[in-house]
Amino acid sequence: MPRNTCTRILATIGPSSASEEQIGALIDAGADAFRFNFSHGTHKEHKQRLKIVRKLARQRGVHIAVVADMQGPKLRVGDFKNGSVILQEGQKFVLDMKQELGDEKRVTLPHREIFAAIKEGDELLLNDGNIVLKIISKTKESAVTQVKVGGELSGHKGVNLPNIKLPISAITDKDREDLKFALKQGVDWVCLSFVQSAQDVREARTLINGKALIISKLEKPSAIEELDEIIQLSDAIMVARGDLGVECPLQTVPVLQKRIVNACRRYARPVIIATQMLESMISKPTPTRAEVSDVANAVYDGCDAVMLSAESAAGKYPVEAVKMMDKIIAQVEADPLFFVNMRRAQEVTCCINESDSITYAANEISKVLSKAACIVTYTSSGHTTFLIARERPDIPILALTPSEKVACQLALVWGAEPVVEKTHFSSFAKFEDNAVKAALESGLAHKGDHIIITGGFPLGATGRTNILHTVLIK
User: Fold this and answer.
1) 270 FRET partner, CA 20 to 30 A, in 250, 261, 386, 397?
2) Which position among 47, 74, 76, 266 bears the catalytic label?
3) Catalytic: 217?
4) The pTM is what?
5) Which residue numbers in the chain have pLDDT < 50?
6) Annotated catalytic residue within 3, 49, 138, 217
7) Separation CA 114–CA 392 (nearest Å)
8) Is there a cis peptide before residue 221, judged by omega within 30 degrees of 0?
9) Alpha-helix runs per DSSP H in 67-154
10) Rounded-to-integer distance, Cα 243 and Cα 69, Å
């Protein structure tokens, strides 16, 4: 059955949602995709959960996207003798490479690359930015800091370095092992954490070698400096507001979110808004009004998907969180001004090639053609559907593809209703007849309606969209 909304829901699977019963309930509640967080869990657990997702998707006759989220280079301090310490504002505190338990005066920071990159006057943020240390002096293996903002610091808390670009890859040795495993399991998307530059995406694309699509998580200010190039090299983008809000001033995050969404639309790349969307639902059955507004604004901005993290992975109310997300999306998309405002904010598509022109024209036709029911895209790679989705048409997008994998990948794309169609067409007439048949069977169109067909003919010419055709269903 077609989805009732255009904006997709990406839910994280974790201890609260790992059973077959819970995963099935999340799908029924409106989850379109599942995130497997490789910062937690074992390969055995991920494999078992992925099998459950695929099994339940087949049983329900839906396509569900599976996203493998790599941990990336997590920078953390070591352990303390007493578990934690209280750092007082103004005191000196040393970070070093010594393999000893920490105390009120020092702690291990086992990352030589940090000491190579920092300089006097730089600030380090610990524990999600709750503790701020200013560098007074440093050597190759240690740094003396002054506590600017104090508080409790326990072992293994994260370290952020705003405006400091580290000479490290976004792909660690652990990520490489996780990546091999995830690709072997047939995941649809790979999420690349802590992207600092376009080179990180190039490296990932070489390793993945076309076996999955790439989502680049934007969490570092240096990535914003290369925003356009990173978007063009990626297949999708995630606005990871958690670390982005630590690395950048908090008040800039909403502005960056809108800037990133607009840039992704420009380049026809799906964009996911993530982190703390319904945070209070980790422990409560209902969200705050501010959280509801936050989700709604992301939908109004035209994002492709909104993501639940701990809400669905470790919270008390994972199914309720997905249901609430679905209700918010449905309410926003039912607003008569939803498409009006989105079009008003949308940049005019720059038609630099045939494919851009065809898909732009298809959307324009959908606005004026009487009883236009849906746009049917034929796509072997997903590219044509990405281009149509960029235009945010106010009629459904029926994406026909010969690939089961592509169909699952398209489950994360705004407005796309993926259907696997393996038929090889020898003539355009059969091509057209099949589009009509698929539109009728999906329930998106009925007799007397028009459908708009786009695609590449002959089929199989990846990346080329050269057909725009309308059909009146008789």
Assistant:
1) 250
2) 76
3) yes
4) 0.92
5) none
6) 217
7) 43
8) no
9) 112-117
10) 15
